[in-house]
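can u pls check wat happens w/ WTA
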Amino acid sequence: MSYPYQIKSYEQYQKDYQRSIEDPADFWSEIAQHFTWKKKWHTTLNWNFKEPKVEWFKGAKLNITENCLDRFLEKSGDIPAIIWEPNDPEEHHRILTYKKLYEKVCQFAHVLKNNGIKKGDRVCIYMGMIPELAIAVLACARIGAIHSVIFGGFSAQSISDRLFDAQAEFIVTCDGAYRGQKDIPLKSVIDDALIGNRTVKKVIVSTRTRTAVSMIKGRDVWWEDEIKKVETMGLTDFPAEEMDAEDPLFILYTSGSTGKPKGVVHSCAGYMIYANYTFINVFQYQPGDIHFCTADIGWITGHSYILYGPLSAGATTLMFEGVPTWPDAGRFWDIVDKYRVNILYTAPTAIRSLMGFGLGPVHGHDLSSLKVLGTVGEPINEEAWHWYNEHIGKKKCPIVDTWWQTETGGILISNLAGITPAKASWATLPLPGVQPILVDDQGHEIVEKEDGLYKGNLCIKHPWPATIRTTYGDHERCRTNYFATYENLYFTGDGALKDENGFYRITGRVDDVLNVSGHRIGTAEVENAINMHSGVVESAVVGYPHDIKGQGIYAYVIYQGSHQQNSHGTADLIRKDILQTVTRIIGAIAKPDKIQFVSGLPKTRSGKIMRRILRKIAEGEIDNLGDTTTLLDPNVVDEIKNGKL
Ligand code: WTA
């Protein structure tokens, strides 16, 4: 197998880029010829960013699983599709060849059907990182149901909100999940999420930890029992549902600057082609390579670069259940060594945390199989970049710094491994088909350099195949969030720099979205959660630089009466109560790192919180707060400064 559209040289990149800009429809239509279609498209692209409307390959019919499974069965059915490494290194790993994965997906598609699930239904998937998660996702796609995977770290309340928003009628979960030393009781979280829920009809539970679970008659069924039924009925192949190119493939919730996560919707055809194209080109995947993306499938990175990108390329993808630091901080290097991993794709936060353990855990592992390293999720600082380059890649592996978002479905800006130049902590050049532009707050293109660089808000001028199609159930929200800030542009929410070579460096979010350990969290969401605590009067949340996490969460809280001497205990206890509340409402990932009690917040006369000041204080820049005279009560600033944690 070879990939006819794999870019082989810098010159070819430049040529392909040029072509993709001059005639995007023609460019993508040529790439799309290499996929399996039930019916070809009549219109390659139809779009306007005003509504917004983005339609690729209109009129085409397909099923993404035929492109990820069926088309490889004949020639490469016996090569591993998924290598699964369990949490506990003592437990046996599992290998699912393309043939095996195909059989399991078909079987589970029958299970879904037997349980009343059909095309267009929303299925919420809340599972640990076990092969059954991949099988469940693909089986949904096979039957045409819309999957919405929820990361295992979200709380019952978060799940309940998402179930409601998606009007989901079905859930696939596990009894529990292993993560390092912890067992997470997933089914019991689902049970809490379902209290008062009237839409969910069926919960399919896969066994992993065999934690005690309550199985409600008529609603809850065991995965294994359902599979047995299918076997007894002699059901094997499952004909792939015929999907329109623009039918939704999945919903994935992500945080924005409002208090409520948005259900980002991706389509079947455009998403598939873009995930595949970027996978093959950015990582320069060669048949036989072992690709190890350390993300969780609960995030977009797992969707695109553990599952759909690699599988649509007939690649071997490694799925890891555990965490990088258990049983020790050498776990990634163990895995690289054990499976002779060729491509390692991880997050800067993981690199920084592993750096903290020194070189001991790296030593004694043979990392010579590595060819390509990648990072994603947040800006990578130069120190981490150099450590990764020297100690993991041994200066022989190109590092791809891939910038993209849940909404973009796949990588938009990145060097191509070994093909286009790399630059430490720069994402560098746009992928073919991607037209970035830097604008000022009024939407004018930045044409003047500042200290030798262009600096502005990062937007995209033209749709690429995996552009966000809508936010589930609320198209207007999609418009106002992404397409209304600047006319005719998709606004990313990120700030960026551009150098004279056209290389981009992403500087981070310019909106109220935090990036904590590579996880997106909206400050408004965290504030809402804190405000749920009975004693809290008001709160304001900002980010601050954190050595490992990239950004930490800093919360300023006004507490009823005095937090110092409260009938409910000391300030520390109240802090713990607040953390507990956030864990309940969102999940442990959104817990503030610091909570400072204050008697007031810096507000303008019109009542708006001056976050800029709070951000500066949290960052430790207390002597450089700018003009505070317009504040309603400038004295609160001194109090906050003095009480800084
Ligand atoms: C940030 C993750 C700098 C950025 C795929 C973006 C990055 C947000 C990079 C999206 C990178 C992602 N360099 N920043 N290479 N990659 N980001 O939706 O702020 O979880 O807007 O998607 O992560 O996060 P999301």
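The radius of gyration is 24 Å.
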